[in-house]
Amino acid sequence: MAVIAAVIFWPQPSVDPSVGLDPSWQAGLALARIDHIAWGRELVFTYGPLGFLRTSAYYSFEQSLLATICQVIIIAALFLGIAAALRLRHSPLTSLVGAFVLTGILTVLHLGHGLAFRGFSSLEMMYPELAVLAAFVWASVPLLQREPKRSTVFTTCAVLGAVAGFQLLMKFNTGLAIMVIALATSVLLGWKAVGRHCATVAAFAVSTLIWWVLAGQRPGDLPSWLRGSAAIASGYTDGMATAPLPQWALPSVVLSLAWMGGLCVMFVRGGHEIPRRYLVLVVLASLIAGKAAFGRFEPWHFAILVGVIVVALAITPWPRARRRTLVVIALAVALVVVVDLGGIPALSDRGVLAMQAPVQAVDRIVTFASPGHVQQKIEQAKARQRALYGIPDRFIKTIGSSTVHVDPHEISAVWAYDLAWRPTLVFQTYQALTPMLDALNGESLTNGPEFVLSRLSPASPAVGIDGRLGVQESPLYSRALLCNYTLSGIENRWALFRHTAPHCGPLTKLSEASMREDHAVPIPAPSAPDRAVLVGIDLDQTFADRYFHGKIAPLSTFTLVVDGVTYRLIAKNAAEPFLVNTPASVADTNLQIHAHTIGVGRTVNLNEPSVTARLRFYEMRVGP
């Protein structure tokens, strides 16, 4: 029954690799597996060496086969967990039917619109988040029992700890989430059971190491990957938060607050039917999902929290007196989902995919039966991508078999053109949101590939995601590209850089200036045509700036104003001098900028004083 449910509720909207930001990092995860790239030493991302298991697209036969097995197991585990929870108070048939329906609802909810090129290719199943939901359901089973067996509790916690280790290497934050759920379950079922707590942690650690080695990685590289992933997660909190929240997020905020308030009221009132320890787990799971939902608010991220709410409503043993309230909550959730996911058209898209899932599953099984069919699909997808990218033939011939890095994020081009990929440590620069990660990226580029293939921004100066100024989000990476590469050519919105000897002088300080919000400061002009001008910004941050730009709640964020144009400022990297005036040697590339004034501000003022900062201007010689 579980396998049947997994096959039926297994939407595969993106079996053909697409282009765009999200499909490109998915391609990067697959390429890391195909090219045996060392994680931690050569690559760091929010995903790990098992991250390729989350995508349904065909990048290679091995990758797509292993991903298929993993995805079916995740959906089956979710189905079985729901059935086990429902079985505590319902008949076997009712439990199976309920689990079947709930699994279908949850898989449809966890279809996310990533930043893909167009169409259904942007609907990608969030399998790591489904795994967290499955862990929550399985943890709920002993918590809902009056007197669970010690052996059952021990097994549940240890298995969840082991699953967390596997999941950590698939997607970093979801592995930590499952580990928190596992340890919380152990504590809630007896805080004095220190042996069980230690066994849960040990299962997590051992599982992480075993799967790391099975993924073809060296044990010595694991600490580096953990540090890098933790740094990305830290930078993501402030650098990627949607701040302020859009107006249409209001229903989601109201529903979330009402849900958390309702859980707290039930906990305080207590009750015979609903154990308080179970309510604590629901609150914990809701907080974890809420952080994912509002850390970077997007409809498909909020669906993660909705999934927790839907499951909790279904498996909680509600007393008869509260069933009318349950219906009201369910209707409110349904209404918010319809609004946040884009209305009826968006729901119909998901409905179509859900109905197509069984046919797609059969087609996938038939395709795997003949490896030649997989390779045929791969070659067809590569041809489509080459037509979309249109990289000049002379660039491809120049690169040949030499190593190449693609920036800012079109990694799919490496796969489509069969290039020799040698990425920077954080292979999509928009994720290098801390000084440590930016420094590692700059160092790996300096000592890195023979070529850098750059997709040109339609705007000048180049603009990254979320309206960032391209040269500011990764200052050291930009300087490494300017100082260790020369421009070979520009054509069809692509620029090719070739690695050379270092050709930049040291930074020479020009001046300092204090500034206040809404008061632009003039940028010194370069003293010669071969000089670049840079600026470092020392922000005076308030308590609200430190904790309400995403860390606790995404209420505001810093902005950078260059020549009257407002960009999002990556605050953690602001102190590192970044380019504000570049020489003619990088004209028409993403490095080009000729700014005259600069200022800072906030998107929303939370009853705070105006932003103040200290600007440090530098000049740097750039040789040929």
Automatic annotation (TrEMBL):
TM ranges = 65-86, 93-113, 125-144, 151-169, 175-191, 198-215, 248-266, 278-294, 300-318, 325-347
Q: Which residues form the signal peptide?
A: none
**Does the record bear Transmembrane in its keywords?**
yes
UniProt keywords, alphabetically: Membrane, Transmembrane, Transmembrane helix
Q: Name the domain of life this protein comes from.
A: Bacteria
> In its UniProt entry, what is this protein called?
Transmembrane protein
Q: Which organism is it from?
A: Mycobacterium pseudokansasii
Q: What is the lineage of its organism?
A: Bacteria, Bacillati, Actinomycetota, Actinomycetes, Mycobacteriales
